[in-house]
Every structure is written in structure tokens, then in C-alpha cells.
Amino acid sequence: MQPVITADEMKQCDRVAMRVYGIPGILLMEQAGAAVAEYVRGMLGSVEGKSILVVCGKGNNGGDGFVAARHLANWGAKVEVLIAATSGQLSGDAKRHFAILEKLCRSIKDRLSIHFISKKTGKLPGCDIIVDALLGTGVTGEAREPYGSLIRAMNAAGVSIVAVDIPSGVDATTGRGTNAVRATATVTFGAIKTGLLCNEGRDLTGRIEVADIGIPPAAYESVGIKTFLVHASDVGRILPTRPSTAHKYSVGKVLVVAGSRGYTGAAALATMAALRAGAGAVMLLTPESVYPILARKLTEAIVHPLPATEEGTLSLKGIEALKERILWADVTILGPGLSRNRETQQVIRDLVQSTRANILVDADGLNAVDMQLLRRAKGVFILTPHAGECARLIGSTSREVETNRVAVVRDCAHNSNSVIVLKGAPTATATSEGKVYLNTTGNPGMATVGSGDVLAGVIAALWAQGMPPYQAAMSGVFVHGRAGDLAAQQLGERSIVAQDLVDFLPMAMQSIERGGGN
């Protein structure tokens, strides 16, 4: 799987490469800047005669920019370098590469110029493309002047921007950035940074190109990276296959405990998704108040009524029948459309606390549990919260969850001793051992009522077919997102409804098994 790292982890990798393996920092900077220049040349086809503006800061990111500027000028481009510093503020490897660039400038003044900027900037010189080497991965918080105005000027220039390692103004770990460069592409070094995938960084990064700058793989291994991107090849290798002797009860029995008066759709979507994702037998237990609706709708599933409260939700009177059916199932989905009725919430708590089973807790099921209950419970759990539900579980806020998405889901999984699927962009699946898997499929059109119910059904079906919980979770997320992408291709993002995700699941599975897509 493709590793994803934080800013601090990248610093550690750099440190190991230099101190343990003796690779000079100036060489790593040379490799980085050369990779950026090569990418720019690939975008333009040829740089000869093209006007390129390289905006540099005083740190290592600026040093990468100096190298890129030198290569581009050597290839025949007309390069203008703007430096948001004074020459006296440059230090270390950046200063050494600036000295090389300065000497080159004296010999090719016709196509290479250098300007220092220390004041607020309103407008940049005209050019064909901008290289953003202003602020690197070590910078956090709001960009000060003259950086802030330079960022705004780059965004207003109306040309493509190639960011060096990360768009200036974006936090490399969290992805937060209120005043940040909106890049066309980002050439990042060694490994993808979490900030390129989360929060504002997700939309500001553009196309991501990972450049190998010569850091040994052992340097990354020494840091103990535990965050990874999930791709189609990762999922295709582990999806369950059916033996020739398969029968309906040997390829996954899923029990869905869902639905209430006014919320029949959630139960139907979760049930149908589990069937479409390959479960051999799916049973829905639902309040008798809505049983006639769901029994008529779900002709391929086994549907049983249970006692209902006056509000049409699950009653405590059905708890023994529930426990008996859970023993039948390989995996139980607990939550979609169950409501927040007090008695029904008690049913959920009793089931979580008393049964030794594989249980996926979603939606209204999440409102009934807390960390203390999960730690006491005897079963194996996958939880599928969105940011608000996760915030309630850990006693935080939705903003805090979104800002530190990877760190939060990792801590939540560890503290609950469960697999946690934190829904959102990107959806992050975490194990209690600290590994986090970030999804690469899906689109904004999937932000529709019922999408989470479909996801619950897919994950449960894969789990019931024998996949370990974390593999079922990360694979289910990927398949669910692929179905959404296929739906968007045919219907458009704006028109996707949750049933479309169910309908496109077979095609999504086939495309992954055949090795298609990312």
C-alpha cells in the first residue's frame, strides 16, 4: 500500500537519510528541485522560450525552487525568481543553491532574473506558469506578509501553478489553509502528506505527483509509518472468492436490525446492499409497525417482525428474539433507522453489552453507545461514524475531528478497541493497533441520505464472507466509493441517490476484480 505521512514523519525521514545513510541535504534538495523542473517541462511539452515565474521563500522549500529555476533556465525557459526574503536571511542548503543560481544569472541575464521582495505584493509579472516554492511542510498557521499577499497574487494570476511539496499556506499534516495557493498540480517528495488529502488541502492540491528524491525505503520503515492509501489493486487482492461448493449459508449470513416508523428506507438500503455485496443470506429484523412495508419491498431477503413501541420502534419485548437471531448470523448490522427512542436505545445497549458477536454499529446505533460501554463489551465491533457522531463518542467537536481526521480516528479505534470507519473526505478506516487506511474513491454526489446505510451493508457482507474486520471495512469503503464514481459517470454527481449506489455495486465489484481504476 502507498504510505502517507505527516510533516513530522517527513522530517524524521529526512533526518535518517542524512544522519544514518550519509546522504547530503544539498543532494536531496537538488533531486527535489530537478523533479519539479521535470514536471513543469512535462506540463508544457517544452520550456524553451516559455515565461516561468518561480516564487521562493527563505527556507528549504525556496531552495527547491532555486534548483528548479536553474534547470528550467538551462533548458531555455525565461525564468524570473521572486524571493520573499533578503539575501541575508537565506541559510544552509538553500543559501548554497542560491549562490549557484546567482552565478548562473550573471552568465544568462537574458533569460534568468532574481528579485527580492520584502513588502506586500499586489500583482505578479505576466508568465506562462508559476512554480510555488514559497512555504513548505514545516509552516503552520496563517501566512504573514509578504507571504499572504504573494499567495493571493499567485491565485489571481490566471495561470497554472505547480506547488513544491505542498501548496503554500496549507498545513502539511491537517490540510487546513484559509489563505493558500490553489495549485494545478503538486509535486510532493518521498511520500504523500496527509494535508494533501484532508480539509482545504484536498481541493487546493490539484494533481498529486510523488517524486522519489533518493530517500532510502529503510528510512521510511524506521519511522514506523502507519497511514496508507487504499487503491484498487490493494482491494482486488483480498476480495473474497466463492468456492465451487458454496451454498447460501456458507458465503455470509448477515442480520440487519433496522428501521422504524418513518425510516424504512435505511433498513431497505442496508439489506439490499448486503445482498448485492455478496452475502448469501440476509435477514432483516424490524418493528412490526413497518414490517408489511419492508416485507413487500424486500423479496430477496428474509424479513421478520419484532414487537414495537407506541412510536413504532423496536421494543424491549423483542430482546430475546434478537439475541437468538444474532447467534445465527456471521455479522449483525445494528442501527440504520432505529430511531433515538429511549426504549430502543436501551435495546441497542443491551445487545452490545451482552452478546459475543461480530457487530457493525451505525447511525442510530452509535447514539446508544459510548467508549466505556465498548471497552466492556465482549463482541467484535466495526463502528461507522461521521464527524458529528465521532465527536460525541470522544467528547469533542466536529471541527476538531475534521481538522485532525487521521489522528482522531487512530485514537478512537485504539480507545474503543474497535475498527472505526470515519466517514467523510477522505473516509479513514482505523484499527485498534494504530493503522489508518485512507480511501481514494468516491465523490461529493454521494453526500445523500441513505449513502451510509449502503456502506454499512457492503462492509457487513464482506465481513460475513470471512474477511478480517479491518479489511472488510477498508474494502467496503473502497467498493462503495467506486459504485458512487460509476454512478456519477452515468448520472452526474448532482443526481445520485442512495439506491444508485446499490445498483452500481455489481459493476464496482467487477471493475475492481478485473484490475480497473485507481
What does this structure look like?
This protein has helices spanning 7-19, 25-44, 60-74, 92-107, 147-156, 199-204, 217-223, 232-236, 264-276, 291-297, 319-328, 342-354, 371-376, 387-394, 398-403, 405-416, 451-464, 469-491, 498-503, 505-513; strands spanning 2-5, 51-56, 78-83, 112-116, 129-133, 160-164, 185-189, 192-193, 207-211, 227-229, 253-257, 281-287, 302-306, 331-334, 358-361, 380-383, 419-422, 428-430, 436-438. It has 518 residues and is of the alpha/beta class. A twelve-stranded mixed sheet has the order 8-1-10-19-18-17-16-15-14-11-12-13, with helices on both faces. The protein has a seven-stranded parallel sheet with strand order 4-3-2-5-6-7-9, with helices on both faces. Helix 5 (147-156) links the parallel strand 5 and strand 6. It is elongated, with a radius of gyration of 27 Å.
**Cα shape:** elongated
User: What percent strand?
Assistant: 15-25%
Helix percent band:
40-55%
Figure out the total of helices.
20
Report the uncertain regions: none
Structure classification:
alpha/beta
Number of strands: 19
Quick description:
The protein is an alpha/beta fold. It has helices spanning 7-19, 25-44, 60-74, 92-107, 147-156, 199-204, 217-223, 232-236, 264-276, 291-297, 319-328, 342-354, 371-376, 387-394, 398-403, 405-416, 451-464, 469-491, 498-503, 505-513; strands at residues 2-5, 51-56, 78-83, 112-116, 129-133, 160-164, 185-189, 192-193, 207-211, 227-229, 253-257, 281-287, 302-306, 331-334, 358-361, 380-383, 419-422, 428-430, 436-438. The chain is elongated, with a radius of gyration of 27 Å.
